[in-house]
Design a protein that fits this description.
410 residues; 21 helices; Tetracycline Repressor, domain 2; 63% helix; single chain
């Protein structure tokens, strides 16, 4: 038994549980050895996690390095982008367990010190240099790069979920044609978005549209118990939040909580479904303020933004769901279907469609990107300070993809 074998087993067994239950005992059971046997290689779970992180960076960099170097030498900026996107997509499609690890553990707030960009730069993959290489043709800000990677993440996760690979213990070998189809669909979405024209998007009066929504969120707290749940989850995360924390925040005894919730999972489910309905209802009110599809789409997006900016605990809860991939879990099929159905708001209006190979699910993708944009830190002090300019960039990317940022088309 080698270190690499232990690392590979950890990826496999912990990915099945979406890293909700990570222990050396599970890894030992997968390898059919006793737990003490693992201590010859790793003195603790954290030591193993650190080794898994280093393995990921080495493996990822090695997989894309040749195409990265080819992309840098290409004279066409658009081709540069898609050469790299296609290779990154292929990596995460072929290596689902590492995909889950990188999307959950590497984005954990406790692991920010790993400094992803620096780790990759040390291995010859410099994304900052890559962005500079396309700046002559594209008006790319860091947010646009983030939206590209988030789109990649969302559709690859959705692809794996739909093929039920998360529920299977055996290795899944994907057909080359299937891989090619989903990669083509993802690059089409990143390239064109919902395929709007520049004329349509540039004609919008953003200030006027935003004025229809600003200040209309009902600040009345309708459910103090769910507010306590949201506060506990925002503080500790959905798996770490306890009934004790909720009881303390709500002023109720722990035993009395069970008259409202069957268990913690039911508590999280009720919070998500209740807030989803409120968000959707508010977005519908916004979209009804116009009959023009491109305006309806922006009004809906901005309404969701305004709602979440006014309720930072709810925003943090939804971001935990996005980062921890609760949408993609194979457990609780009925729960998952309810969650998915609650986010179909934009599919009810004529906003355009995404490729069939990508699942034709525009609404969850849009919602995913909204959360991603609102959670950016550094350029503003709090969620309520998130600038509207970022939302307009987001809208342009959704409607036109990176084509909306070509300098010669502005």
């Amino acid at each position: 038994m080698t270190k690499i074998k232990v690392i590979e087993a950890a990826y496999k067994v912990w990915a099945r549980e979406f890293y909700t239950n990570t222990s050396l005992s599970l890894v030992a059971r997968e390898l059919k050895v006793c737990k003490p046997a693992l201590y010859r290689h790793f003195i603790s779970k954290n030591a193993l996690l650190e080794a898994m992180t280093e393995y990921f960076f080495e493996d990822f960099a090695a997989f894309i390095r040749a195409d990265y170097e080819i992309a840098l030498k290409n004279e066409d900026s658009k081709e540069r982008i898609f050469i790299l996107i296609r290779k990154m997509a292929e990596y995460y499609i072929r290596k689902v367990n590492i995909f889950i690890f990188s999307m959950i553990k590497l984005r954990d707030r406790k692991l920010e010190s790993f400094k992803t960009m620096r780790k990759l730069r040390e291995r010859g993959i410099d994304f900052k240099l890559f962005q500079q290489s396309i700046n002559k043709d594209y008006t790319f800000q860091p947010l646009i790069m983030r939206l590209i990677f988030s789109t990649l993440t969302f559709f690859i996760g959705d692809f794996h979920k739909n093929r039920k690979v998360f529920a299977k213990k055996e290795e899944i070998v994907l057909d080359t044609a299937i891989i090619s189809n989903i990669i083509n669909a993802i690059t089409e979405i990143i390239g064109k978005g919902l395929n709007y024209s520049g004329e349509e998007i540039d004609s919008l009066d953003y200030d006027e549209l935003e004025s229809r929504i600003c200040g209309t969120v009902d600040s009345t707290e309708h459910d103090t118990l769910l507010k306590a749940v949201a506060g506990a989850v925002a503080e500790a995360g959905p798996w770490e939040a306890s009934m004790e924390q909720v009881a303390r925040r709500s002023g109720l005894s722990k035993s009395s909580l069970y008259s409202h919730f069957k268990n913690k999972q039911d508590m999280l489910h009720q919070l998500f479904m209740t807030e989803s309905k409120r968000i959707i209802d508010f977005a519908w009110q916004g979209m009804e303020k116009s009959a023009v599809p491109c305006e309806q789409l922006y009004l809906g997006i901005f309404s969701i933004v305004e709602y979440l900016r006014s309720k930072p605990d709810i925003l943090t809860v939804f971001d935990w769901i996005r980062n921890r991939k609760l949408f993609f879990s194979h457990k609780g099929k009925e729960h998952h279907e309810q969650m998915t159905e609650s986010l179909q708001i934009f599919d009810e209006i004529n906003i355009g469609r995404i490729p069939e190979a990508a699942g034709k699910r525009a609404s969850p993708w849009i919602f995913f990107l909204i959360l991603n944009t609102l959670m950016i830190r550094g350029s503003y002090q709090s969620f309520s300070d998130a600038p509207n300019s970022g939302i307009r960039f987001l809208y342009r990317f959704i409607t036109m993809g990176i084509g909306g940022f070509l300098k010669n088309e502005k």
